[in-house]
Specification:
The chain has helices spanning 2-30, 34-59, 62-88. By secondary structure, the chain is mainly alpha-helical. It has a single domain (2-88), classed as Helix Hairpins (Orthogonal Bundle).
Length: 93
């Protein structure tokens, strides 16, 4: 019974994350300003990371959790670099 509930909850979470990823791609494509596109990209990498974590919970493989960690680190660094570029016009001082 508990395995059935966990499987249903993971399936529902993956469906909702897929919808969130679709909306983030829409924000990237239709954002009127560059700041909107950066926020859409930030949302996209966070939801992709969470989708990979749900795959890891479903399969029980530790490889998915390591991939999610790499996505989180690279996503954070890219968001900081893009924000700094939008604020100052340069990344490296």
């Amino acid at each position: 019974m508990n395995v059935l509930i966990l499987g249903g909850a993971l399936f529902a979470a993956q469906i909702m994350l897929a919808m969130a990823m679709t909306m983030a791609v829409w924000r990237i494509a239709r954002g009127p300003r560059a700041q909107d596109r950066v926020l859409g990209l930030d949302t996209l990498y966070v939801t992709a990371m969470l989708m990979i974590v749900t795959f890891g919970v479903r399969t029980g493989s530790m490889l998915y959790f390591e991939a999610a960690l790499v996505i989180a680190l690279l996503g954070f660094a890219s968001t900081v670099a893009m924000a700094k570029f939008l604020m100052r016009g340069e990344v490296i001082e």
